[in-house]
Specification:
Two copies of one chain form a homodimer. The first copy, chain A, has 23 helices and 18 strands. The first copy, chain A, is α/β, with parallel strands linked by helices. The first copy, chain A, folds into three domains: about 270 residues, Zn peptidases (Aminopeptidase); about 230 residues, Glucose Oxidase, domain 1 (3-Layer(bba) Sandwich), CATH 3.50.30.30; about 180 residues, Transferrin receptor-like, dimerisation domain (Transcription Elongation Factor S-II, Chain A). The N terminus of chain A is likely disordered.
């Protein structure tokens, strides 16, 4: 180990400084020194035993939203917070949450086969034996349905796959599709299938993406065994997450009579996840052309597309009820700025036992809270208010966080400093996504935490992995799409958000299965909870710094850099599409596509596409230039030299600036998503789209809309720049 | 079809001309018109029924070198040639050819399993039932051996794979390796394994590369079934092909007592091919780390590397005998220039039934000869001499062609115009590789043949496939590596060579198995022999044009263009390696590689590499410039305006020019390979390396040698350029 450390010293120039000497954004030198001491005490007080104990307890039985386990989990967590001295409440919301009544999948031709859709208990996994209260394998917010038809294999089931099917002369209308997990968030698959006329959708985990191809299967290894299927939501969350019946409003009434037909985000066709054990007979029974090479998985068969002769019958019925979602809210009021709220959250509900997802992150948050309370008892007080949040109902649709934040929207937009989220965490490399303005803040936090395996700073390991992967050797926050509870804060309310954790080295195929258990976690993911501890160090430092900073560490220059990058990207996207369209149209008109195709295979030459016009990107470019200038002007302001009133004004301006990126009418066809810099992709689901109004209009070839969205996006960026300019100006008056 | 044709017209500007109007390189306009008529008669006389009849007859029993079937095939072919009026002889050579006596592969730990190494008969495949005279599954020129040891999976078994193994801390010394087919010519695998200290080598066909992953397996589909293994040579042919005991000399003595220990090209360790059915239990029994993702195949298991616990015992004994190889030589003497020989060849031996490989090409050559003889009987005579060659013993080591050409080396270097080779051919796109000087000649031939499936010119289909694949939409002859009988002509004797055929659309996994049968060919490869006919059209036209041309159509400008390209490539190769080495060394010294690695997995940081010096490429660049100037000067000479003496001198100069690229001492460590522009790769086998002396010295980091080879290569190019300059000058005197 010592050699490693010696080598590492030269990687980080910051490392030569002792912790107490290092600058911390938002802190005067003297405060930074005190802060370093505080953080050292924080680290020392962390007790790794708590992680395992809490995880074991909370993962001992199913604890999905609406279950007794979820209620018990919320109560246990609330008790802990209370016992540590937090003002704690359980705030309950009542969203629509369907559970399965009937699940039937059978192949009726060319031979009979009934899917098992059941995860069996395995040796050495204690909780896999529990049947009581278990949620079976299903996709939440699938519509009810009873459909029969020929089966078609559609690869990942994303729009490009249907383009390819069309070229092969295959039409899914009136048929059921079999898609594999991967390539998009799962909810995209039934959405695109329905858009293409399919009447039902099956989603299976191919062992190539999630099974024996990746590593030995559970319980021998960490990976998904043949009987395991991935549960998960298929709600159309890129339109809006949360209760499908109350978009933009909190679901507070437990006595409503819910009508799922009113729910815009429920799928149009029935959809069910299956294991690769259940998928294999279906795939074997498919005829038709052999699937393109990139569509083929790891099952020992020749992948055909169909349609048929495999014919399947899928019947699904759900119990459409309101479920109580118990959000635990625990507050420690700030001593100097009680109206500035630093929020820290993680969900507590899981698909069944949920040890990795979400408890590995949840227990880190709990330990952060415990230690901070211990520091508080020893005399330290945060200047700003800390609020810990343990969400319920994240898995089905970010239910708890969305409804809670919709309920408290006004206060949050007034008072929030930032929302720091975590979810499952594991062994490996630092992962930080979120608001660009927190880039330097995040980098400095990573600088000051030691990687448990290598004893190098977490930042150095992160940078080494980027370099070796051929990426820019700089710390860069990735923008947020969706997939966890930051969504409402970041995209709906414009509150600076971060999503943090570690990962990349723990192997795994337990995701959303009953094998996401304590036993699996400690064997394969983070055996000694070293990285859960590192997550707590990370989250804890972020809280302590935001709570204690002399001024809030938002940096608009990072925002400007990121927005310039994205702006260049969308301009290049249009240029590339123009060149690609031109080339493709020429290939069509000259007959080259037809000539290069195998005449013995069906090949439908695509229709020529409308040429890509030159778009007027000038408003966007000018707005970004204005933003760069404003950010540059702000870097010249030294907060340390401002009087308290001016400093407070500047800090508030920076804290609220992110909301300038919101557009009241939101994005096209999804007004709930209001942030003009990023959103989950309409056709990717979790995957982020930056400058989404502009980017998705181009991708969908909506040229008029692209022009409009350039304007709206430029307007938001300009509003942000002007807000910064005013803030800078005020410091001088 | 009509629409297709209409669209195609605009693709080929040449198409607007009628065949009789089109220019043909080497022909005066009036001769070109006569030639077009002749070619139309040639096409008309082709009889598709012959292909099937001959293929069926010749593939009815095993006909590998040394077998009664091979002798019968040679005699049948010779009879045909004779009956058509050719001066025909069978010239026999006697190379060393081992056949198996003992083949045993068993796993002895952690459980027992004995490999079947047998291809069983399948429904609907007539010849697969034949046992008599069948050569079992084996690799020719494996050494004898009886070895036992732990097994290690080494992916494709190429040098990069061993680099990766080293990084993973895995040593193959004293162990047996299991490599999959692909990624290199098979003979490279035991060579590199032995260099790394392995004691035995198994090569299996992974279903990902060659089996159910690609398509339905035989007999349902065309692809390799689980019991099928790929036979083939593992002789170290990149050093020299042909009889291992007589490098550079013909093996004419049938009475020698062969001593395989004297054979430099026999493998150092025993090696055997196995099916994926036989490989699966071995792979399942491997422990150790999981193989890197790109190493994993399509068997339904987690690919581990080992070493062990799988322990195997491999015992191989061969009968090391001389085998008679019967080369059929059939001549039609030219009327005007009998001393200019146009050679056309294909081998007749196969691994067992060999319908696709080699008979699909062989029957095309026979039909070309038959029709040309018919034309001759009707009064036409070739100006130059035509020689048809049906080779024996190509499969084990290009035995027949190499020994024959070594025997006739002087005459060939004096008299040969060009050698046109084919081998297996199938449905799909034109494939022409060879001497760059024949690029325009080949392009014009492709222009004048109609693709049987689309009715477009073969050239247009070829160009369309290049465009759609994003390649330059120009006709380009690929340089030749090895893998068929052109090798001795091109690389050892410097005779302009072409390798021709069609392919890319017929599916297949019958390669070198007993399922390469007539039944397989007509079901899956070229059911109506349309592309065999197209191959005969191609070969026939090439022969008729070279035989009849007013002057030979060699074009040095294409050579100059190609050499400039390759010269730029090797310069870039050194630059890229320099940058890559610098980066990698920096990653090593800074610790980034170590930091980015998973500490729970063994990772041995590579040693820093010597920096890549700047090489003096000036001699090469100057030589290429000189070549370009010489080629440009030659294009100004109009052969049509020369008097017969001068024309004859020019023609001879161009015909012999290619030999100027030969270096008497050959390439480093393989003097048999004398062409300085291209050679099969020392570590790729079949795959070509251009400017091989320079390129391989750089790849192997032999900087001094690279400098020397730049000199030798520049010398050869300059000699060629000067030869052209003299030829151009002489036309003016």
């Amino acid at each position: 180990m010592r050699n490693t450390i010696a080598i590492l010293l030269c990687l980080s120039t910051l490392q030569a400084q002792t912790p107490a000497d290092r600058p911390i954004a938002g802190f005067q030198p003297e405060s930074a020194r005190r802060q370093a001491d505080l953080e050292a005490r924080f680290d020392k007080a962390l007790n790794r035993q708590n992680f395992g104990q809490w995880m074991k307890r909370l993962s001992a039985r199913p604890h999905h939203v609406g279950s007794p386990g979820s209620r018990a989990a919320a109560e246990f967590i609330a008790e802990q917070f209370k016992s540590w001295g937090y003002e704690t409440t359980i705030e309950t919301v009542y969203p629509l949450f369907p559970t399965p009544k009937t699940r039937l999948l059978e192949m009726i031709a060319p031979e009979r086969f009934t899917a098992k859709i059941e995860e069996t208990s395995v040796e050495g996994d204690e909780t896999s034996r529990i049947k009581e209260g278990n949620l079976p394998v299903y996709n939440a917010y699938s519509t009810d349905g009873d459909v029969t038809g020929d089966l078609v294999y559609v690869n990942y089931g994303v729009p490009d796959d249907y383009t390819k099917l069309k070229e092969m002369g295959i039409d899914v209308r009136g048929k059921l599709v079999l898609a594999r997990y991967g390539g998009s968030w799962r909810g995209i698959k039934p959405k695109v299938a329905a858009e293409n006329g399919a009447i039902g959708c099956l989603i299976y985990s191919d062992p190539r993406d999630d099974g024996f191809f990746r590593g030995d299967v559970y319980p021998k290894g960490a990976y998904r065994p043949s009987q395991s299927a991935q549960r998960g939501s298929v709600m159309d969350m890129p339109v809006y997450p949360g209760d499908p019946l109350t978009p933009g409003k909190p679901a507070l009434d437990p006595n409503r009579a819910p009508d799922p037909k009113q729910a815009a985000t429920v799928t149009k066709i029935p959809v069910m996840p299956i294991s690769y054990g259940d998928a294999e007979p279906l795939l074997r029974a498919l005829g038709g052309p052999v699937a393109p090479e990139s569509w083929r998985g790891a099952l020992p068969l020749t992948y055909h597309i169909g349609p048929g002769p495999a014919k399947v019958h899928l019947k699904l019925e759900f119990d459409w009820k309101l479920a109580p979602a118990y959000n635990v809210v625990a507050k420690m009021t700030g001593s100097e700025k009680p109206d500035q709220w630093v929020l820290r959250g993680n969900h507590h509900d899981g698909w069944n036992f949920g040890a990795a997802d979400p408890l590995s992150g949840m227990v880190a948050v709990m330990e952060e809270a415990r230690v901070i309370a211990e520091l508080a008892r020893a005399g330290w007080r945060p200047k700003r208010t800390l609020i810990f949040l343990a969400w319920d109902g994240e898995e089905p649709a970010l239910l708890g966080s969305t409804e809670w934040a919709e309920h408290h929207a006004d206060e949050l937009q007034r008072n929030a400093v930032a929302y720091i989220n975590s979810d499952g965490t594991g062994r490996g490399f630092l992962r930080v996504s979120g608001t660009s303005a927190l880039e330097l803040f995040s980098q400095q936090t990573a600088r000051d935490i030691t990687d448990p395996q290598t004893a190098a700073p977490v930042l150095d390991r992160y940078l080494a992995s980027r370099r070796v992967a051929g990426q820019e050797a700089e710390f860069r926050i990735a923008p947020l799409g969706s997939g966890s509870d930051y969504t409402v804060f970041q995209h709906h309310l414009g509150i600076p958000s971060l999503d943090i954790g570690f990962g990349g080295e723990g192997g795994g195929g337990s995701y959303h299965s009953i094998y996401d258990s304590y036993d699996h976690y400690v064997r394969f993911i983070d055996p000694d909870f070293q990285y859960v501890r590192a997550t707590a160090q990370l989250g804890g430092r972020m809280l302590l710094r935001l709570a204690n900073a002399d001024w809030l560490p938002f940096r608009a220059d990072a925002t400007a850099r990121a927005v310039r990058l994205w702006s260049n990207e969308v301009i290049k996207l249009a240029d590339d599409m123009r060149a690609q369209t031109k080339k493709q149209n020429e290939w069509i008109s000259s007959g080259a596509l037809k000539l290069a195709a195998d005449p013995r295979k069906t090949y439908v030459v695509p229709e020529p596409k409308e040429e890509v016009p030159h778009l007027n990107f000038a408003p966007l470019q000018n707005a970004v230039t204005r933003l760069e200038a404003a950010a540059a002007a702000l870097t010249l302001v030294d907060p340390a030299k401002l009087n308290p009133t001016k400093l407070a004004a500047l800090e508030n301006a920076l804290r609220l600036a992110e909301q300038k990126f919101l557009r009241n009418d939101g994005l096209p066809r999804r007004p709930w998503f209001r942030h003009m810099l990023h959103a989950p992709g309409f056709y990717t689901g979790y995957g982020v789209k930056t400058l989404p109004g502009v980017r998705e209009a181009i991708e969908q070839r909506l040229w008029k809309e692209a022009g409009e969205q350039i304007g709206f996006t430029a307007f938001a960026i300009t509003a942000y720049a002007d807000w910064l300019n005013s803030a800078a100006l005020e410091t001088k008056q």
